Amino acid sequence: MKDVYYVGYVDWEVRNFHGYSTHRGSSYNAYIVKSGEKTVLIDAVKRPYFNYFLDSIKEVCDPAEIDYFITNHVEMDHSGSFPLILNHLPNAELIASEKGVEVLKAHFHGEIGDEVFNKIRGVKEGDTLDIGNGKIFTFVPIPMIHWPDSMVSFMTDENGKNVLFSSDAFGQHFATSKRWDDENDLCEIMQEAEKYYANILLHLSGLIAKVLPTVGALPIEIVCTAHGVCWRSHIPEILEKYTKWCKGEIEEKSVLIVYDSMWGSTEKIAKALAKEISHRGITVKRFNLTTADYSDVITEAMKAKAILIGSPTLNNGLYPTVAEYLSYQKGLKPMHKVGLAFGSYGWSGQAVQEIANIMKETKIDVLDELIKIKFVPKPDDLDFKEIIDKLLEKM
Ligand code: FEO
Question: Which residue's C-alpha comes closest to atom 1 of ligand 1?
Answer without folding.
Answer: 168
